[in-house]
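Lecture 7 notes: from sequence to structure.
We start with the chain below.
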Amino acid sequence: MLPPIKFYSLLLFLAILFFSFTEAPLTGFNQIKTIVIDAGHGGKDPGTALGKEKKYALDIALKLGEKIKAKNPDVKVIYTRKTDVFIPLHERAAIANKSKADLFISIHCNANNNHGIRGTETYVMGLHKSEANLDLAKRENNVIMLEDDYKKSYKGFDPNSALAHIMLANYQNAYMEQSMNFAAKVEQKMGAYGNKSRGVKQAGFLVIWETTMPSVLIETGYLTNTSDATILNQESGRTKIATAIYDAFYSYKNEVEGNQ
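Predicted C-alpha cells for the same chain:
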C-alpha cells in the first residue's frame, strides 16, 4: 500500500494527465494550415470595367496573402495566379484541391447597369435567391467560353443556360456551414472598415463548385458605382479591403482552432 503522500501525488498526476487530454483544444485535427487565394480573371479575361477588375482583384489578393504570411508564419499561402495570366476556372479549384487547402478565397469586383448599386457581397455555393444573383453567376461563369474544350472540362455545362445554373446551384456543398461562417465574418469586417456590406449570398459559381474545402467568392465592390470605384481605384482603399478580409480570416482561424 502506498504512503498517503505518494498516493495523493499519483492521483494529482493522473488528474493533470486526464484533463490535458480532455480539455485541450483539438488543434491537431482543426487547424488552418493552407489557404488558397484566387485573384479572379486575368490575362485574356479582363473582367469588368475594361480590365480594372483583373488588376484590382490581383492587387487585393497579393495584399491579403502578404498579411497572412507576415502575421501567421504557420500558414501556407498559395495563389492561383500572381501575375496577369489566364487560369481556367476548373484549374483554380484543382490547385486548391491538390494542395489540400483548408480555405479557398476567390476575389472579384462587381458591376451593374444600375450605377446606384454599391457595396461588397460574399458568396457561397448554393441556390440563387434572386435574378441578380443568377445574372452575376452567369457573367462570372461565362469566362469558360475562353477555354479550349470547355464542354469536356465542365461536363457539358452551358454558361448561357439559366437551367444549367439552377442545377449547378443545387449542388450539395459539404462545407456550407463553414463557408457561411467565414463569409459572415468577411461582410462584418467589410462594414467595420467603412465599406457598405450587401451581406452573404448564394449562387452557383463554377470556381467554387468543385472545391473540397470551405470556399467563398468575394465581390469587393461595384466598379460601376462612383463611391465603390473611388475606394477600389485607390491603393489605400484596396489595402483596407485586404485588411478586412484578413481580419475575417484571423477570427475564423482562431475559432476553428479553438483559440478564442
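Points to note: The CA atoms of residues 1 and 185 lie 58 Å apart. Residues 4-28 have pLDDT under 50 and may be disordered.
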